[in-house]
Design brief:
By secondary structure, the chain is of the alpha+beta class. The protein contains 16 helices and eight strands.
């Protein structure tokens, strides 16, 4: 499943109006994110000189101000696609949506768990000089349908586009919450709203209760609130029909704590018994106990109120890090610093081995690039060939091209279906070796982080001991001085 989103880049002023456009192009082309530029390409321009070409287009038609360009982001579901396939899809989306009208640079970033693509394109057409205009509804009418169709052609899942476009937008917003933070704010806000509604006798007191919980309130065309730790206001109506301002006013007068937890008269308390299966406690080394103790101490945040969770984001990140380190020590049965050093050495060798394996796979695939390029050209002509075979002579020229490509494969000793199988084979091999590489890097980084922390703690203890030793010596020397 691929989710698309389009942003625009505004004018930065007289001195450098296209600054945002230039920065965006440089960002999507960063070598560390694109395998040293492997997953960067241009449409109707050269990637290395894209901004200058776009700038000259603007100057040519006298449209150097206002919106400078647009940034289309396509995010794929985790684990559903590899970078090579994603790059093919992004290229086809750019070509189909922008055609021969706009200069664009597109790229794929595979440095995160979610592979995603970027398309940055000029706001001015290099052919007609007309400015690109994004209208409300273009996403549901043009952009996402193209993305869906191409994903379907590659066997990927798609987003359902109903008449109510809010559904797809809500899906993206919810996914965006999970991507950008550890918490889904909506659930937390609804819980606090429900609590204040049940406790407040009037709407004004409801607002006071919200303010006491740390919420900033904005009343205007839309009733919106912002909890501490959240950067933007959230319209309450986006949480559901029960959270519009009108509905909240009704609920304040109709709901109370008695509705939330009705009293049950005549019900007698009863003792519930249950059996607990005891398991033998696993023995831990000193190093493992140390990390477990840190986890326990940081785990105190769980006892805090749910609505105050934003305060503990840093603690949660620290807890996740410590948990990973603790599990690493258990997984490799590391009981002392010697074991840790040996494991680090072993993981370094494993990382080098995986890198060599990855290099071998890419080199083997590179030998077949000419076959894959021929196959891609044939796939582009496939619809024309089908039409010709159905009796439409209009596509005779395309049929001739398709036949030449077909014969070219035969001379190489391959049939079309054999090349397709070979391409799929290398696609799977590359995905597998990348997973291995990612796992090896993660394990090695964990080992190094633990080693660095131990060395840092050791140095800190030495400094403390030296300070104490110096203080003791100074105090002794003062005591030994004669009194005049």
């Amino acid at each position: 499943m691929a989710i698309s989103k389009i942003l625009y880049m505004k004018d930065c002023g007289r001195n450098f109006p296209g600054k945002h456009l230039k920065v965006a192009i440089e960002y999507i082309s960063v070598p560390d994110k694109t395998q040293n530029g492997k997953f960067v390409a241009g449409l109707n321009c050269q990637p290395d000189a894209a901004y200058e070409q776009m700038k000259q287009t603007k100057i040519k038609f006298g449209k150097t101000d206002k919106r400078q360009g647009y940034h289309l982001i396509i995010s794929f579901e985790e684990g559903e696609v590899d970078a090579d396939t994603a790059f093919e899809i992004i290229g086809k989306i750019a070509k189909e949506y922008l055609g021969e009208e706009y200069e664009a640079v597109y790229a794929v970033h595979d440095n995160t768990e979610h592979i995603h693509g970027h398309i940055c394109f000029n706001s001015v057409s290099f052919k007609t000089g007309k400015k690109y205009r994004y209208e409300k509804g273009d996403w549901a009418r043009d952009i996402q349908p193209i993305t869906n169709r191409l994903c379907e052609a590659y066997g990927l899942s798609t987003i359902e586009l109903s008449e109510d476009k809010a559904k797809s937008n809500d899906h993206y917003k919810e996914w965006n919450d999970f991507r950008d933070g550890k918490f889904v704010w909506g659930n937390m806000i609804k819980r606090d709203l429900d609590t204040c509604i049940m406790q407040a006798p009037t709407f004004d007191s409801f607002l006071e209760l919200l303010a006491d919980k740390g919420y900033e309130i904005k009343q205007g065309k839309y009733f919106a609130i912002r909890p501490l730790g959240m950067y933007r206001f959230k319209r309450c109506k986006s949480l559901g029909e029960d959270y519009t301002e009108e509905r909240i006013r009704e609920r304040v007068f109709s709901e109370s704590l008695s509705d939330y937890r009705p009293l049950r008269k005549g019900e007698q308390p009863r003792i519930v018994t249950y059996k607990i299966k005891r398991f033998k406690r696993a023995k831990m080394s000193g190093l493992q106990k140390r990390y477990f103790a840190k986890l326990y101490r940081i785990g105190q945040f769980k006892k805090k109120p749910y609505s105050q969770a934003w305060k503990y984001k840093d603690d949660i990140r620290k807890m996740h890090k410590l948990q990973e380190q603790y599990l690493f020590l258990s997984r490799h049965d590391i009981r002392n610093i010697v074991d840790l050093a040996m494991t680090t050495e072993s993981l370094t060798a494993k990382k080098a081995e995986v890198s060599k394996e990855k290099s071998r796979v890419f080199k083997a695939r590179a030998k077949c690039n000419s076959l894959f390029q021929t196959l891609d050209e044939m796939q582009e002509l496939k619809e024309c060939e089908n039409s010709y075979q159905s009796g439409d002579n209009f596509f005779e020229e395309e049929h001739q091209q398709w036949s030449n490509l077909f014969n070219k494969l035969l001379k190489e000793g391959y049939k079309v279906d054999e090349v397709e199988v070979l391409k799929e084979h290398y696609r799977n091999e590359i995905a597998l070796v990348r997973d291995k590489e990612k796992a090896a890097f993660k394990e090695l980084n964990l080992a190094k982080s633990i080693m660095n922390e131990i060395l840092h703690d050791s140095e800190e203890r030495k400094k403390e001991e030296e300070i104490k030793k110096t203080q003791t010596q100074n105090s002794k020397s003062k005591q030994q001085q004669p009194i005049h």
